[in-house]
């Protein structure tokens, strides 16, 4: 880390995506462009980030230019309509998969928390393994379903049966009829292991479980959340008789309980933000950079509870690295420099109308504020 009095500084630009507006890469490029207009001599290192949800594969791809994109047509989306699945195959044989791309909430025409499934995720996992993947890195986040990953497990060979030995309906609601699970034909997990990237510590069931914590954003009313919670408990009880699993493990409730289902398949739940920081090289920058610029669509109290920006700020505090947070809206004040696009633009609507431009402006303002603070 250089002294600010020595001249040019090293600046790591590591934002999350601004959901529904800009990708993490687009945000990073715009912030860097604005910063350079004020401090052109600074060394800018662009490291777009993600926490296991939207943008996970793209964040990894931005720092692994030897990765090869794979694609699977006709994947079953969360509501049954066909979509396209894709994954990134890294040189070491790791396939990077993002659940949201084939089983995500934005793919739904209308909410169906009880019927949406992770079947498409299972199809992409199976295709990646057939393509030769030796390990899997799966981003869990942005899911439409609350099926505990049952749809994915079924696609991988598990049979979910009712008391008459018939296959139960798909989706979380169908788990209420579950009586037994046959894992005799379940595909083995890859030899290099399965990492499940989570952005939550939610467990599978109960008040802090998948249905109650994430059900509202998927359209589940209180009664349906109760039903889904009971169905997930039934699933956990049945799966626990066949495979080692822990519904109370932090992160088991990620992606509607998919963290639980895939951990029973041999997956290991890991904090997504920290893992992506390691994969993209951001972890090393906390000991090298003079400043880290991060950001997200809205910075609020929850940002400091396991989310990407909170994770970045925590590492900045540990290493005494200056921090800048740029957000569409600042609901609370971050440590270090904080800049709101809505404040710069005059309103949230104005900021959303031209997010790239206002990110460039924010980059310039951030650089100016940093300079004045030195």
Quaternary organisation of the protein chains: single chain
CATH topology of the largest domain: Glycerate kinase, domain 2
Number of domains: 2
* Shape call: elongated
Total number of β-strand segments?
13
The computed structural class is alpha/beta
Low-confidence stretches: none
The CATH H-level superfamily of the largest domain is Glycerate kinase, domain 2
Number of helices: 14
Order the strands across the largest sheet as they lie in space: 3-4-5-6-9-10
Helix content bin: 25-40%
% residues in beta strands: 15-25%
- Level-1 CATH class name of the largest domain: Alpha Beta
For the largest beta-sheet, the strand count, sense and barrel status come to: 6 strands, mixed
Order of helices and strands: EHEHEEEHHEHEEEHHHEHHEHEEHHH
| Cα-to-Cα separation, first versus last residue | 15 Å
The gyration radius over C-alpha positions equals: 21 Å
């Amino acid at each position: 880390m250089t002294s600010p009095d020595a001249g040019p500084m090293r600046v790591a630009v590591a934002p999350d995506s601004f959901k529904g507006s800009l990708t993490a890469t687009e945000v990073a490029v715009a912030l860097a462009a604005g910063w350079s207009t004020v401090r052109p001599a600074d060394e800018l290192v662009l490291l777009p980030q993600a926490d296991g949800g939207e943008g996970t594969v793209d964040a990894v791809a931005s720092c692994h230019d030897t990765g090869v994109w794979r694609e699977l047509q006709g994947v079953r989306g969360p509501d049954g309509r066909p979509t396209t699945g894709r994954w990134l195959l890294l040189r070491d044989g790791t396939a990077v998969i993002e659940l949201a791309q084939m089983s995500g909430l934005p793919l739904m025409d209308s909410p169906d928390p009880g019927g949406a499934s992770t079947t498409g995720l299972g199809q992409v996992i199976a295709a990646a393994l057939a393509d030769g993947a030796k390990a899997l890195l799966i981003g869990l986040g942005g899911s439409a379903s609350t099926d505990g990953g049952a749809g994915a497990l079924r696609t991988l060979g598990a049979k979910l049966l009712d008391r008459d030995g018939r296959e139960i309906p798909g989706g979380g609601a169908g788990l209420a009829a579950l009586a037994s699970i046959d894992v005799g034909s379940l595909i083995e997990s890859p030899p290099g292991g399965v990492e499940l990237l989570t952005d939550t510590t939610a467990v599978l069931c109960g008040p802090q479980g998948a249905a109650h914590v994430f059900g509202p954003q998927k359209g589940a009313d209180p009664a349906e959340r109760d039903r889904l919670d009971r169905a997930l408990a039934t699933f956990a009880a049945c799966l626990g008789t066949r495979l080692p699993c822990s519904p109370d493990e932090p992160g088991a409730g990620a992606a509607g309980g998919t963290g639980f289902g895939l951990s029973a398949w041999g997956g290991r739940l890991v904090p997504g933000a920290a893992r992506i920081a390691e994969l993209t090289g951001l972890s090393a920058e906390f000991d090298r950079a003079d400043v880290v610029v991060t950001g997200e669509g809205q910075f609020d109290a929850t940002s400091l509870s396991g989310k990407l920006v909170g994770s970045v700020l925590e590492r900045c505090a540990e290493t005494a690295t200056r921090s800048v947070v740029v957000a569409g809206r600042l609901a609370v004040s971050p440590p270090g420099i904080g800049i709101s696009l809505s404040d710069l633009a005059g309103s949230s609507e104005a900021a959303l109308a031209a997010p790239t431009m206002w990110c460039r402006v924010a980059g310039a303002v951030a650089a100016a504020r940093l300079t004045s603070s030195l």
